[in-house]
């Protein structure tokens, strides 16, 4: 092995097998020591109670895959001659529109009907903006008003619905809709309708499946129970009165039954799968989504029609339905002990203990009265080290002579001189 190789190996091995430690300075101060232990205690409590206990830092979590259906039941009777409806019995086939929705359902509580419409000419509704006129010149033949009911014929006719007003004649479905809601909602028994929610979830990672119809529920229980959050058993009942749902939203008012609205039904599954799967239970939360205090766009409504033939004449019944749109959302999270997750969270928590050292160093070196003393003991400045090294290699030697004189010499070996 050459000289250069030996020198390289010596330098490499010297650095490779060296072990270094940080400089330790012990400060006997009650205030600083108490602060240091207090910060450490706070970090330990945070890791144990918040990270590990509350946030389940020892578990790995899986989100649920879910499906939900809704089935409504209930009968209502109404007899309104002024609304052109007459005596009618309402069941789920009439007031659930459409029959099936994805994670949602609509319940009609009120309606405006325009019966027996036929294609022909008639006056436009006086509610259509920009449709009033004073002469035929104000009505353009063939003009389609997008918010209107048909095509203008170019003729101005007196309105039969509002005095001292003339409107443009149209070709379309006649007579046009007269949108006036009754004082009370027509489907008066709607608050007593019930809805049964069937929700299935699965945690694929842990092969766990759960159903909101629990194993201990029998036919008798399901036929008689109604959801009640204050009862130990009924708080898991999957059957809900619509009036109860509105009460639980804490925003109930009569107008929602008259003009409609939007309500959220949220099903939440927070499951600790380290325990028995039977303890994985649903929780129901209800919220009113629409802002009824907003003067614009109150309620919820839409139109649909039924077409039929009467003789050789094609007719339709136009229905403007008001009601409550229910949206169903499901969220599920299942956790189980996982060694890697636990180790990572524990290691991260222990690493936070270094914050105590950083904070106390800042207090000692920047805030305390003796910070300069602590700083000189804690930190070795380069200039100070250089002076120490120079003093060590080039000491000053004082030599006392016979006559009491002292000679100062800068070399390592003193030179003694004497007088003759």
TrEMBL record:
Gene Ontology terms: biological process: calcium ion transmembrane transport; response to ATP
GO cellular component: endomembrane system; plasma membrane; postsynapse
Keywords: ATP-binding, Disulfide bond, Ion channel, Ion transport, Ligand-gated ion channel, Membrane, Nucleotide-binding, Transmembrane, Transmembrane helix, Transport
Localization per Swiss-Prot or TrEMBL: Endomembrane system
Presence of keyword Disulfide bond: yes
Transmembrane feature ranges: 34-53, 346-365
Name of the protein in question: ATP receptor
Source organism: Echinococcus granulosus
């Amino acid at each position: 092995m050459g000289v250069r190789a030996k020198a390289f190996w010596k330098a490499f091995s010297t650095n490779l097998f060296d072990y270094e430690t940080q400089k330790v300075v012990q400060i006997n101060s009650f205030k600083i020591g108490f602060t240091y232990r207090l910060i450490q205690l706070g970090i330990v409590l945070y890791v144990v109670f918040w990270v590990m206990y509350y946030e389940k830092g020892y578990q790995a979590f899986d989100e649920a895959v879910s499906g939900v259906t809704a089935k409504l039941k209930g009968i209502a009777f109404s007899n309104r001659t002024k609304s052109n409806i007459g005596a009618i019995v309402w069941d789920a086939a009439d007031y659930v529109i459409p029959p099936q929705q994805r994670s949602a359902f609509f319940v009609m509580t009120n309606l405006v009907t325009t019966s027996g419409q036929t294609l022909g000419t008639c006056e436009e509704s006086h509610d259509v903006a920009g449709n009033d006129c004073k002469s035929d010149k104000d009505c353009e033949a063939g003009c389609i008003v997008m918010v209107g009911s048909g095509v203008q014929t170019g003729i101005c006719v007196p309105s039969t619905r509002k005095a001292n007003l003339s409107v443009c004649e149209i070709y379309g479905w006649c007579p046009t809709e007269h949108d006036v809601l009754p004082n009370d909602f027509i489907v008066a028994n709607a608050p007593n309708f019930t809805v049964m929610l069937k929700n299935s979830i699965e945690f694929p990672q842990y092969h766990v499946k759960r159903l909101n119809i629990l194993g201990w529920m029998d036919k008798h229980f399901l036929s008689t129970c109604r959801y009640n959050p204050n009862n130990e058993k009924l708080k898991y009942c999957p059957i809900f009165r619509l009036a109860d749902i509105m009460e639980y939203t804490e925003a109930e008012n009569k107008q929602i039954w008259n003009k409609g609205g939007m309500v959220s039904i949220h099903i939440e599954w927070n499951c600790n799968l380290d325990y028995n799967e039977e303890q994985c239970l649903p929780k129901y939360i209800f919220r009113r989504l629409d802002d009824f205090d907003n003067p614009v766009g109150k309620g919820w409504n839409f139109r649909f029609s039924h077409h039929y033939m009467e003789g050789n004449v094609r007719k339709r019944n136009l229905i403007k339905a008001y009601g409550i749109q229910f949206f169903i959302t499901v969220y599920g999270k299942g956790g189980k002990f996982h060694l890697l997750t636990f180790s990572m969270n524990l290691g991260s928590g222990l690493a936070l203990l270094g914050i105590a050292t950083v904070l106390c160093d800042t207090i000692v070196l920047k805030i305390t009265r003796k910070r300069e003393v602590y700083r000189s003991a804690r930190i070795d400045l380069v200039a100070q080290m250089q002076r120490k090294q120079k003093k060590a290699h080039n000491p000053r030697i004082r030599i006392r002579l016979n006559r009491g004189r002292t000679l100062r010499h800068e070399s390592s070996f003193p030179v003694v001189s004497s007088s003759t």
